[in-house]
Every structure is written in C-alpha cells, then in structure tokens.
Amino acid sequence: MMYFIYSGMFFERSLYGDLLELGKFRVLEHERNAMIIETERDFIKEHDKKPSMFVHGMFRMDVSDDIDEGRYVDSLYDMVRRLKLPKGKKIRIECYNVNSKKGLSAKQIEMELSDRLRKDGYNPEMISPDVLLYLVLVNMRCYAGIESYRKLEQKFLNPLRHYGSETGERMVSRAEAKLLEAFDVFRIKGKGIAIDLGAAPGGWSMVLAKKGYKVVAIDNADLEYEKIEGQRLSTKVLTNLKKTKKTDINEMLRNVDIVHIRENANTAFQKISLKGVTMIADDMNIEPEQSAQLLMDYLGFAKKGAHLVMTVKCISKRVSKHVSKAEGILGPRFRIKSVKELPNNRQEVTLFARLV
Ligand SMILES: C[S@@+](CC[C@H](N)C(=O)[O-])C[C@H]1O[C@@H](n2cnc3c(N)ncnc32)[C@H](O)[C@@H]1O
Questions:
Q1: 329 CB near ligand 1 (under 6 Å)
Q2: Are residues 198 and 271 located together in one domain of the fold?
Q3: Could you tell me the pTM of the whole model?
C-alpha cells in the first residue's frame, strides 16, 4: 500500500520516527515535510489504534505513474481515469504540487482536471463533496487516490478547512486557529469557567467566550478589547490587585464574559479567589516545564475532570524531550489524553489532558 503523509514544517524529522511506530515502510519520495511511502501494513488502521503526534494528513494512494511532460494535464487525467470514480457523486479535486517542474500551479491543475471530469459526465464540486480525489505531484511522478470525504474528515483534521481565513478580519490573533483546531481534534465539549493563561492579545479568550465559557484571562499585556467587544462580548480589566484582600472572580463573572487580570500568572493566582474552573487553556510563551509547574502550583481553582489545552513550546527540535518533561510534571494530577502537532502550531505541539 502507498500513502502520502505530511507533517508541519518544523517536525519533518519527528514525523519519520512517528511512522516507525506504525510499522516498517519504504520511502518512495521525500520532500521536506511530505513523504510517499510504501508498506505492507494498513497504516490508516495502525494510526487509528495509535494516533501519532505529528501526522497532519495520511492519504492512501491507489495509482501512480510518471508524468508525460509533453501531455502534462492529459497524462494526469489518464491516471485519474484509472481510479474508480463514482458518477453522480460530488468529487472535489485536491492537488499537492510538491515540486512541479512545469509552470502549472496546483490550482490550475485542479481546474483543468475538473473541466475534463465535467465533460465526461462527472460532477466535480468544491462545496460539501462526497469524495475527495487527491493527486500528489513530486519529481515528475504523480500519485493519486480517492476516498470518502467524511471518512477523511473524521480521521484527520479537515485538511481543507483553514480556520484563519474562516474567521478573517474578526480575528484577534493567529493563535485562535490553534484553539479551534484543538476543540475539533480532541473533540472537546464543555461549558463553565475557563482560565486562559498567557491570554494577550485575546484570541483564545474570545474563542472560549464565543463557545459560551465565562473566561478569566491572565496576562500582563493588554487584550484587544475593542475587537473582542465588537463580537458582542463584555470585558473587564483588573490591575493592581492586592495580595492582602483576595478579589472574588466568580462573583465578577456573573456580569461579564471576560475578566482580564493584567498580571503574570505567577502573581495573579496569589491575589484572586476563583473556583470551579472547567477549562484550563495555557498558551504562555515560557518553557514547558515552567508552564506545567505553574499550573500544578495553583490547581486549587480547577474542578475535577477539567480540560487542559496547553501548547508545549519547543525551544529546540528535541520535541519528545520537551513533551515528556511537561508530561512528567503534569502526570500526578492530569491524565494526558493526547499530544499532537496541529496545523497551526509553529515550533510547538498541543497537549490535551483531564484533571483527575
Ligand atoms: C503566544 S502569546 C498568547 C496568544 C493568545 N493565546 C491569543 O490567542 O491571543 C503568549 C503570551 O504569553 C504571555 N506570558 C508569558 N509568560 C507569562 C506568564 N508568566 N504569565 C502570564 N502570561 C505570560 C505573554 O505575555 C504573551 O502575551
């Protein structure tokens, strides 16, 4: 069986190690963070049993052939016709042009092939497709496969959804996409009170509030209050809190969506009283061990079963070392459910856990 597998840019070496966990394989093509491999095993099944940290997408490729330079698009279409294409179903074509030697972009190829399919009585359609037809062009060779769109969507983060462009102008920060992905990938459903550590400029806080959580945002930098309030969410900023008289945050959350404590987490926790937190979101840009330890020191605010979404910032490429250090610190109180590199992670992975 042949598979097209890719990870994020920073993690190409880690991807290789991840795949070895699934079984033996032979690399047919390898370009940066994308690989075509051949294996005896059903890697999709293996990956279902043991989801890997770095795989962004894994597609079974059904056919492959050299591209005829003189009949470029025609030779691609010949290969497409070798797949079992369903008539009457909506087919979306996705082309990954890894290192094209020819001037056509992936988009142009998709359009050309869609035209040919339409002429031959098929139904190429971008919106709500039934099946995804994918082509990978690498080193003048083409690999192609077809799969139920829903099946792919359930297994991997929808490769066609770009949270950034979805939220567009209304975004407060690029980081928002990371949290939306985490909710999707880890299938988080929750409500109640969320604490957002390292909250500025406020993307995660806004996402959480829009999902219905009451949010306690902690960061000594400002949030984008205007943008957040433009989303019909109310905010309140607290500064100069005193250690001597703890401020009751639960009381404040009755009347406001996001309470921002403009302090570092290290000091903020000593000045507030807060309980019943059901979601801990941690995107602080500090070393993972420090971040994990800080959480462990102040867990009294959280409820049993609370979700934790934490970005583990990898200051070096030794990703597993950073992850296992954070896991080691969190281990006594959290059940780690998954650690995954999400498409919008940059030099970091996202850890998902539950408080026990
Ligand atoms: C990547 S940004 C967070 C982006 C945010 N999640 C969003 O969606 O807008 C990291 C933040 O961590 C904050 N930070 C770093 N150390 C911190 C600490 N000890 N306590 C609280 N915030 C901290 C920084 O001020 C910075 O705003």
A1: no
A2: yes
A3: 0.77
